[in-house]
Design brief:
This protein is α/β, with parallel strands linked by helices. The chain has a domain at about 1-75 and about 190-265: Rossmann fold. Helix content is about 35%, strand content about 25%. The chain has helices spanning about 50-55, 95-100, 100-105, 110-125, 140-155, 170-185, 200-205, 225-230, 235, 240-260; strands at about 5-20, 20-35, 40, 65-70, 70-75, 80-85, 160, 190-195, 205-210, 215-225. The strands form 2 sheets. It has a 6-stranded mixed beta sheet with strand order 6-7-8-3-9-10, sandwiched between helices. Strands 2-1-4-5 form a 4-stranded antiparallel beta sheet. Helix 6 (about 170-185) links the parallel strand 7 and strand 8. The protein is globular, with a radius of gyration of 19 Å. It starts with 6 loop residues before the first strand and ends in an 8-residue tail after the last helix. The structure holds adenosine-5'-triphosphate (ATP). GO terms for molecular function: ATP binding; ATP hydrolysis activity. Keywords: ATP-binding, Nucleotide-binding, Transport.
């Protein structure tokens, strides 16, 4: 349960073919994410953030280059990688327990240890008494907690989080940020978060990758200062250096937007 994996992205380019021709969504991305690291990907709309997650999950294979997990080439989706999205995609006709067990069912895992782990996770997320409830009886924040349990139930080494908080109100979002970081760090999971929210990225991450568009490339790879990393996301915002880093990342966004993408050089 505490297994962690590295992600190695080497010389990755992704070209999409559409009616107008070809479009380079990502160009020559080299990135290594360490076991247990929490990394956020930020950047303007269309810079290739979701494409990068799709490549790590094995839903897409890169046009060139390679994506590996602990040195093993990823060519198709693998249970080692869990994916959590903005929408919870819970089945309305299934109870909460039945929803969180879906991934286990698909993998044919009906063993007692897996069931016990699901019960433990539901309790940890404050959902124990809702195991027999249906999704419509839960708030948006609770439903995202259910989605987190469903993702963790199959014990992936890596979690990909694609804007999982964007549909939530501010207070719920802050609470869920805390819960996710605590839960993933306690289990040593490697995590990659895509977000448009700079302060969320700083508060949750060990490292932040800034992408620039047209074509998508790495503009900056920023390590979050230690005092901020050590703090829970809710308190990270009060730490020294938080606002300075926010301003630095904000100015990178402005630079990319001024140049309309395709900007070279460091911020
Ligand atoms: N299947 C596809 N076919 C053609 N073009 C695509 C496809 N998927 C994505 N794109 C294009 O590739 C670029 C990168 O898309 P992607 O969704 O990865 O960006 P993003 O940074 O996640 O954007 P957003 O922040 O708006 O979600 C965009 O210009 C998008 O229109």
């Amino acid at each position: 349960m505490t297994k962690a994996s590295s992600i190695e992205i080497s010389g990755v380019s992704q070209v999409y073919v559409n009616r107008k021709g070809t479009f380079a969504a990502l160009q020559h991305i080299d990135l290594r994410i360490e076991p247990g690291e929490f990394v956020s990907i930020i950047g303007p709309s269309g810079c290739g953030k979701t494409t990068l997650l799709s490549l790590i999950s094995g839903l897409l294979t890169p046009t060139s280059g390679s994506v590996s997990i602990m040195g093993e080439l990823i060519k198709r989706p693998t249970p080692r990688v869990g994916y959590m999205l903005q929408h919870d995609y819970l089945f309305p006709w299934r109870t909460i327990k039945e929803n969180v067990c879906l991934g286990l069912e698909l993998l044919g895992r009906k063993d007692e240890a897996s069931q016990a782990y699901v019960t433990e996770l539901l309790a940890e997320m404050g959902l124990a008494e809702f195991a027999d409830a249906f999704p419509h009886q839960l708030s948006g924040g609770m439903r995202q907690r259910v989605a987190l349990v469903r993702t963790l139930a199959t014990e992936p080494d890596i979690l990909l989080l694609d804007e999982p908080f964007s549909a939530l109100d501010y207070q719920t979002k802050l609470q869920l940020e805390d819960l996710i970081v605590t839960t993933l760090k306690a289990r040593g999971k490697t995590a990659v978060l895509v977000t448009h929210d700079i302060s969320e990225a700083i508060a949750m991450s060990d490292r932040i990758i800034v992408l620039q568009p047209n074509p998508g490339r790495v503009l900056a790879d920023v390590t979050v200062p230690e005092p901020i990393r050590q703090a829970q996301p809710l308190h990270a915002r009060e730490k020294e250096g938080f606002h300075e880093l926010f301003r630095r990342l904000w100015s990178m966004f402005e630079q990319v937007e001024r140049k309309g993408g395709g900007a070279d050089g460091t911020p």
